[in-house]
Amino acid sequence: MTASTLLVAGSIVALTVIASLWYATRYRNDAARNLDEWAVGGRRFGTWIFWFVNAGEIYTTFALLGITGYAWAFGAPAYIAFTSVSLACTLGYWLMPCIWHAGRGGGLLTQADYFVHRYRARWLGALVGIAGIVALVMYVQIQLTALSLVFRLTLGSALPAAVATSLAALLMLLFVYLAGLRSAAFAAGIKDVLMLVLVVVLGSTVAAKVGADSMLDVFHRVQQWHPDIGRFPGLDPSAGLDTTWFVTAALNVALGTWIFPHMFQLCFAARAANTIRRNAIWQPLYSLSYFFIILLGFAALLAATQPEGGNLNAVLLQFVADRYSPLIVGLLAGTVCLLALVPGSLLLLTAGSIFTRNVIAPLREVGERQAVWIARMAMVVFAGCAVLLTLTSNESLVAVGLAAYGAIGMLAPGVFFGFLWARTQAMAIAAGMASGYTALWWPPARELVAATLPGWDSGLAAMLVNALVVAAITLATPRRTAS
Amino acid sequence: MLLPFIWHLALAPLVNEVRWQPWGLPFPMAWQMAGIVLTSLIIGLVYRLDREPRPNGREP
Q1: Are the Cβ atoms of A230 and B29 closer than 8 angstroms?
Q2: Nearby residues of A365 by Cβ (< 8 Å), 6 or more positions away
Q3: pTM for this model (two decimals)
Q4: Deepest of A155, A359, A433, B14, by most Cβ within 10 A of its Cβ?
């Protein structure tokens, strides 16, 4: 790759990081001492900053690299990007203010705090904390995969994957160590603007690059070439990505979006419940930008793009590297870096604070300064786990993302029942989680569930098992008299 | 608030059979995009209703 690509990509990342650190210095004294400021931004986020962090969490490399790859390889199944954001916001309009109220009322910092507060069981908080960390580490894997792809694109594919991934993890840790949620929020704003610029630049020029007359002509041509690309099950019927998969997977993502510990925690950072509600109105419209992302995937197909090793995560990078000038390649590389760095650092930040507060603190006395130190050490370990996961997996980013949603969905019944059904008790939630994880991860149980609910997304099927167990135990438990 | 779920999910299998291509787009894709606009409108409407003063304390 040329020096100008490297220069553009490097400058984008460096300038953004410097600017966001400068922005956070105004809060630095608080941030160093206080977990509340470091982890939930002092609960002062207004509409704009909340919007950017939220968008930053929803539109990650999962969107840019994952969805283009999915459109290129499968076609219609990529529509899941449109559907899941829209439904998540509909659900969020009701759920997020509930979470915000619980957080404000109970002085909660993490998702596991909510379980401790609602179910009055610290052990459940620790259990939920560990489950949340596992799902977060799976999600960090997505960001590391993307970062290492960009490193190999810009620094040369001779760079071993292990080195590229470790470098990516190191960069993520550095970013999160230097400040907290506020830096990430600022960087999220910059990266969102960059992503829009990139999407507009690529979207408006892509037709000419693949010999089509207009953006819509790209869709027309690709459907002439592959008549079934635009409808389910898409280009590869053997992949099982039919409408049943689509409906169940989209529902699972929508149900799981706010259950991710970092999204849950983000609700606590809002200044007011109305900040969250207003955000839910506008956030879906932003996901219309997936039109351009799917367009790019289809264009790469028309251009007969062949990523190295058939890796569908690398389709967009390969397509742009083949057809665009080094400057645009640099813009893409820099933007993807930020798209991975910002959400990735927030994921690690969340995992660290959960570990300190909900796993360690119940076992021993932890001071405020010590808490921040433990959180930082824990993040190194979690980043290491994510590096190992990344190196042992070669799945598509969307598949990894759906697996992470499957894992976090096991906490959804505890949250939903927590708000909707006063009778639910800690034991029922724990039993539901145990049966849900069994249905999700123990192969014989997974096969049984798959045979019972053919074509379903495994995460939603396991969530259903989980919820049924919680409901059955709750109904079988004698009602407690009001105290 | 159920409408977005009906539009995006419940109708997805039916929509998948439509061969019409508005502006050259696959119909299921155009449908999901229209669903996003509908969702924003519905959430916006519900937000307005939630904020309006409620005479006699009744739900809007």
Answers
A1: yes
A2: none
A3: 0.89
A4: A433
Contacts of residue A235 in chain B, CB cutoff 8 Å?
none
What are the backbone dihedrals phi and psi of residue A405, each rounded to the nearest 5 degrees, phi first?
-65, -35
pLDDT along chain A (483 residues), means of 10: 75 77 64 58 70 71 89 94 92 92 88 93 94 93 89 80 89 79 75 85 90 92 92 90 94 93 86 85 87 94 88 91 88 87 86 90 82 88 94 86 93 94 93 96 94 93 96 88 51
ipTM: 0.88
Cβ of B1 within 8 Å of Cβ of A94? The answer is: yes
CB spacing of B26 vs A223 below 8 angstroms? yes
Interface of A with B in 56-115 (CB under 8 A): 76, 79, 82-83, 85-87, 89-90, 93-94
> To 10 degrees, what angle do helices A326-354 and A122-155 make?
160
Q: Are A116 and A124 in contact (CB under 8 A)?
A: yes
B44 touches A at CB < 8 Å:
yes
User: What does the DSSP assignment read for A33-49?
Assistant: H-HHHHHHGGG-B-HHH
